[in-house]
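Before a colleague's protein record goes any further, I have to sign it off. What it holds is a sequence and that sequence's fold in token form. My question to you is simply how this chain folds and whether the tokens agree. Thanks in advance; the entry in question is below:
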Amino acid sequence: MGGVSLFQDDFRLIHQSLEKLQQRTQANAILLIDRAGQLITSVGKTDKLDITSFASLSAADFAATKQLAALIGEEEFSDLFHEGERENIYVSMVDSKVILVVLFDKRSTLGLVRVRATQISKEISEIFQNIYKKLEEGGPTTTSIVDAEFTREAEEEIDNLFK
């Protein structure tokens, strides 16, 4: 079994974890992004969402909040919550490089989303730790594996936008 399939298996596990979170919370959409605002993967109803802008702004929101935290003597806030009339956004750090974004409505509650997201974040963090370990042990370069998989997912999401 080659390195590529190992990373694909990891990616599949991440995607399955997000699907499980969506089912358990009745979330409308869930995005996994990196701290730079690049989409890693998503599940749910994202067809009416400008994913590129949303991911970028979510990462920027986290960065701005880190600066606010510093002003009051905190290192950073691990969770953010935005409440709207129809939609809510819960944003949480999975690890130092990955951010989880959950969009949900009145069918769910912040408490439920927060508890379930914390559980799934631990699963996803373990998967990423495994990926980081593989990369350190001389696995395929991040660019050749991650970008290929992420590019495929991004292309699918872009196609969905124009359907």
Q: What stands out?
A: The longest strand covers residues 98-104. The longest helix spans residues 110-136. Residues 66 and 77 are 6 Å apart (CA to CA).
